[in-house]
Amino acid sequence: MRELLEKIAAEGEVVADGVLKVDRFLNHQVDPHLMKRIGEEFAAQFHRERPTKVLTLESSGISPALMAAYELGVPLVVARKRRPLTMTSEVYRAEVYSFTKKETNEIIVSRPLLDSSDRVLIIDDFLANGQAALGMVEVVRQAGADVVGIGIVIEKAFQDGGRLLRSQGFRVVSLARIASLSDGVIRFHEEVMS
Ligand code: 5GP
């Protein structure tokens, strides 16, 4: 998605250990116009799979996932990292190792929000090693529902997540694919292929 690549090139910042900081438009300050375009793009990519819910993980996935859910006309379910006091029902839970925080967290979703009739589109801001996406897949499986696709805003193609998810048969659509972040330079996959 051209606008996204331009935004990453202009405002993304490489920080240590292959991590891209996108705090100016995606996960701290958020660009609503870009999020709307991202939502439209995910909806165009996935509407044929007829999702009934979009699932993401708090907090950085919420902005793009909300716009995708809006465009698809379905509810957004946000997997929580901490159980709020108001979550009184039974929960689905899965363990997720965080690439950026280097720690294992539980993700939880209230059982009444997903059931076996659901067709779930998983959306996240980044794909690195695939652990966040696999945690969400696990929650969907516990509900007996189907994963109809995985939409990623920025895939770091030099890490294993994309290969792992695709080898398990999931349709993964990434709006930007990054080939490398070495030497502080952002290189897009398309650039390297051409
Ligand atoms: P994975 O679970 O695929 O290893 O990592 C994906 C999760 O880690 C995403 O939900 C995202 O929040 C975070 N993440 C992974 N790599 C990056 C990165 O380069 N920059 C930022 N800002 N977050 C990342």
CATH class: Alpha Beta
Which consecutive residue ranges, at least 5 long each, have pLDDT under 50?
A: none
Strand order of the largest sheet: 4-3-7-8-9-10
Question: What's the N-to-C terminus distance?
Answer: 16 Å
Q: Are any ligands bound, and if so which?
A: guanosine-5'-monophosphate
Query: Share of helix among residues?
Result: 25-40%
Number of separate strands: 10
CATH architectural arrangement: 3-Layer(aba) Sandwich
Strand content: 25-35%
CATH topology grouping: Rossmann fold
Q: How does the overall form come out from the CA principal axes?
A: globular
> N-to-C SSE series?
HEEHEHEEEEHEHEEH
The profile of the biggest β sheet is: 6 strands, mixed
Alpha-carbon Rg, integer:
16 Å
Keywords:
6-stranded mixed beta sheet; 6 helices; 32% strand; 194 residues; alpha/beta; globular; Xanthine phosphoribosyltransferase; two-stranded antiparallel ribbon; glycosyltransferase; Rossmann fold; 10 strands; binds guanosine-5'-monophosphate
Characterise the protein shown here.
It catalyses: XMP + diphosphate = xanthine + 5-phospho-alpha-D-ribose 1-diphosphate. Its main location: cytoplasm. It holds the Pfam family Pribosyltran. It is a single chain. The protein has 194 residues and is of the alpha/beta class. The chain has one domain (2-193): Rossmann fold, CATH 3.40.50. Helices cover 31% and strands 32% of the residues. The chain is built from six helices and ten strands; from the N terminus they run αββαβαββββαβαββα. The protein has helices spanning 2-11, 32-46, 62-72, 131-142, 161-167, 189-193; strands at residues 13-15, 19-21, 53-57, 76-79, 91-98, 103-110, 119-127, 146-156, 172-180, 187-188. The strands form three sheets. It has a six-stranded mixed beta sheet, sandwiched between helices. Strands 1-2 form a two-stranded antiparallel sheet. The chain has a two-stranded antiparallel ribbon with strand order 5-6. Strand 5 and strand 6 (103-110) form a beta hairpin. Helix 2 packs across helix 3. The longest helix is centred in the first third of the chain and has 15 residues, at 32-46. The radius of gyration is 16 Å and the shape is globular. The protein starts with a helix and ends with a helix. The mean pLDDT is 95. Bound molecules: guanosine-5'-monophosphate.
